[in-house]
Design a protein that fits this description.
It holds the Pfam family Hydrolase_3. The chain has 267 residues and is of the alpha/beta class. The protein contains 9 helices and 14 strands. The chain has 2 domains: 152 residues, HAD superfamily/HAD-like (Rossmann fold), CATH 3.40.50; 103 residues, 2-Layer Sandwich (Hypothetical Protein, Haloacid Dehalogenase-like Hydrolase, Chain: A, domain 2).
C-alpha cells in the first residue's frame, strides 16, 4: 500500500510532555516523510495555543486535528472543521463546577481560560509547558461570547462527575491526570473524536483511510488506529490500545516514531 498521509498524536507519541523534548531522530524522519510527498499532520487533544513549543520544531504540518477532532486547521491555520460545545451545555458545566468547587478551564481554539481554582490549573499547565495564551476569567463569562470546544475539569469526586455525565449524554470524558489530591479530565462532545477530524481531512484531500498512517498511545487514539491502513501504537501504550493497532513501535523515549516510520516507509 502506498501511504499518502500520516497523523501523529503529540503527547506520549511525538512529544515528551514532561521534558519538552521531540527527539531529533523523529524530526529527521518527518522531514524524510515530507520529501517523499507524504502529508504530515498532527492529531492531538491540544488546542492551537498549546501547540507553540511543538510548532517551533515542526512548523510544516499540512493539517492539525486539534482538541480531539473538534477543531481542524489547514497548513495556513484556516479553519476546516469545528464542533464546539453547545452554549447551554457549556453553561451547565460552569454552574456545576462552581457548585462542586471543581477546577475548570475551557479551550476556545486559540486561547484557554481558567475559571475556577486558578493556581492548581495554572500549575497543571506549567508542568505540561502550555502557558501560551492562558488567561483567567474571574467573571466566568468568556464562553457566552465565544465557542468553547473542550473543558478541563479538576475534581476530587469522580462519582459526581460520572453522575453529571449521565445527565449530559452528549458529553464524554478522558482522564488526563491522576494526582494525590485530584483527578483531571478532558470533557467534550461525545461525537468528537480524532477519527471525525481526520475524516474531514481525508475528504478534503480525496484520500481513503487505507492510504493513512496513524501513530498514537492513548484511548483517544483508538478509533484512528483501528481505521488507519497502518495504525501504530507506541511501546508505552496499554495492551488495550495496542490491540487496535497494526504494529507496535518503541516508546516516545526511544525514538518510537522514527523507528516506526523507518519500518513502514523503508527510509
Amino acid at each position: 500500500m502506498a501511504y499518502k498521509i500520516a497523523f501523529f498524536d503529540m503527547d506520549g507519541t511525538m512529544y515528551q510532555t514532561e521534558n519538552d523534548i521531540i527527539q531529533q531522530a523523529n524530526l529527521d524522519a518527518l522531514r524524510k516523510l515530507k520529501e517523499q510527498g507524504v502529508l504530515v499532520c498532527a492529531a492531538t487533544g491540544r488546542p492551537l495555543n498549546q501547540m507553540h513549543l511543538i510548532l517551533e520544531r515542526i512548523p510544516y504540518f499540512d493539517y492539525m486535528v486539534l482538541i480531539n477532532g473538534g477543531y481542524v486547521l489547514d497548513a495556513q491555520q484556516n479553519l476546516l472543521f469545528e464542533n464546539p460545545l453547545a452554549r447551554e451545555t457549556t453553561q451547565d458545566i460552569v454552574d456545576w463546577c462552581e457548585e462542586q468547587q471543581n477546577g475548570l478551564m475551557f479551550h476556545f481554539g486559540d486561547a484557554s481560560y481558567i475559571y475556577d481554582s486558578f493556581y492548581p490549573l495554572y500549575d497543571f499547565c506549567r508542568d505540561h509547558h502550555v502557558l501560551d495564551y492562558l488567561f483567567y476569567d474571574e467573571n466566568r463569562s468568556y464562553h457566552k461570547r465565544h465557542n468553547a470546544y473542550n473543558s478541563v475539569i479538576m475534581t476530587k469526586n469522580q462519582r459526581a462527575l460520572d453522575t453529571f455525565l449521565k445527565q449530559h449524554p452528549m458529553l464524554r470524558s478522558d482522564l488526563i491526570e491522576v494526582a494525590e489530591d485530584h483527578f483531571c479530565y478532558d470533557v467534550f462532545n461525545a461525537n468528537n473524536d480524532k477519527f471525525v477530524g481526520i475524516s474531514q481531512v481525508l475528504r478534503k484531500e480525496n484520500l481513503t483511510w487505507e492510504e493513512c498512517v496513524c501513530f498514537g498511545d492513548s484511548t483517544n487514539d483508538i478509533k484512528m488506529l483501528e481505521m488507519a491502513g497502518m495504525g501504530v501504537a507506541m511501546g508505552t501504550a496499554s495492551d488495550y490500545v495496542k490491540s487496535f493497532a497494526d504494529m507496535v513501535t518503541a516508546s516516545v523515549y526511544e525514538e518510537g516514531v522514527a523507528k516506526g516510520l523507518t519500518k513502514i516507509f523503508q527510509f
